[in-house]
Amino acid sequence: MTPPRELLLGAFQAALAAADPLRIVGGHLPPPPTSQKGKTLVVGAGKAAAAMALAVEQHWPAGALLDGLVITRYQHGLLTNRINVIEAGHPVPDAAGEKAAQEVLRRVRALTPNDHLLVLVSGGGSSLLTLPAQSLAMEDIKALTAALLRSGAPIQAMNIVRKHLSAIQGGRLAAACRAPVTALIISDVTGDDPTHIASGPCAPDPSTYRDALNVIQRHGVQAPAAILAHLTRGAGGEIAETPKPGDRLFKRVENRVIATAHASLAAAAAYFEAQGIPAAILGDSVTGEAREVAKVYGALAREISLHGKPWRAPVALISGGECTVTVTGKGRGGRCAEFLLSLAVDLDSAQTIYALACDTDGIDGSENNAGALLTPDTLKRAREKHLDAAAMLADNDGHGFFNALDDLVITGPTRTNVNDFRVILVT
């Protein structure tokens, strides 16, 4: 059998390939406008924005009018010819993103019904396409974003708040456009609902200002006074709501999801099965605290290892979704490292179990790694280095733990994002 570490890394690469914009975007492009005066404007935001823009250029007819502007994370840009790529701040927005978002909105408003708007949407777009609503300051948006990230709120809840502070998200980008709109979407959220992906710039928004206030209260978020005042005014009917489902404007808008977590999990399962190892997909919508989810998966892996149920070894248990980490410690590490460190503590050096947990965007939290690897001798090697796994887990220091063992998985920017990828291999 191929060494387990190589199998885990190979499965991750298969998952990434299934969500590679350069492979998938070309088959979903709309035709150019039929009017001789019509042009196609490409705008977008997200970690996959540059790769999606390059894919559009590679497949667009040479004689058809095309230009545009997309926003991606720093160090995620690519060289393009017809579509300008701007790099900006993520996960906390910055002035570069705000300036680019202003230009996106200006150019969208200038389109005519003879034109076509092509919007490239991917995970990370909520931060990268930040344009504060009138009367709000970027500094307050940045402070709120940082507080939301620490709160443990799920991404859907965070985006409810962000949509109601934005001049461009929550369907407002589509509302600003007179031309037909096609949004191509790479999903990084559980359920793959366009309203939650990059805060749904072209999707109807069923949430309200009151919902946004409830998120802040429920998760104990310390929001700036100007933010609370804006949301309170909105809840009182003093500020117009985001466009809702059923609004006639969406008759000229198509939101098309072209890559999902489940498709990537299926690609990883096919990879294992080609290696003669059965694979079970446990779901693409796993949420909850990363350390608690790890305990559930640990119990399942032990049951297989010790009793051969509900599957006999060897078997690969594959899952996706987006867990959360409520930060209480001072360590470094994202949700994938936290999941894996909790799994290590729970399994306590089980001799037949290996695991990998990585974010498909190549960034676990705010670190330079996609995730990490777990092997049966992980805790043994940790003790030899005088690392206390339980104490480091309590300090949210999964990055420090796996970095010390040289078990981080570092891919660099993948320029895609279909959420977390986890696999537990019971041999």
Description:
- This protein has helices spanning 4-18, 21-24, 49-59, 95-109, 125-128, 138-151, 155-163, 172-175, 209-218, 225-235, 261-274, 290-307, 335-347, 378-384, 389-394, 398-404, and strands spanning 40-45, 66-73, 83-88, 116-121, 181-186, 253-259, 279-281, 315-321, 353-359, 371-374, 408-409, 420-426.
- Helix 7 crosses helix 9 and helix 9 packs across helix 10.
- The chain has 16 helices and twelve strands.
- Helix content is 38%, strand content 16%.
- The model has no long low-confidence stretch (mean pLDDT 96).
- The strands form two sheets. Strands 3-2-1-4-5-6 form a six-stranded parallel beta sheet, sandwiched between helices.
- It has two domains: 20-259, 3-Layer(aba) Sandwich (Rossmann fold), CATH 3.40.50.10180; 261-426, MOFRL domain (glycerate kinase, domain 1), CATH 3.40.1480.
- Helix 12 (290-307) links the parallel strand 7 (279-281) and strand 8.
- The chain is an alpha/beta fold and 427 residues long.
- The chain is globular and about 65 Å long.
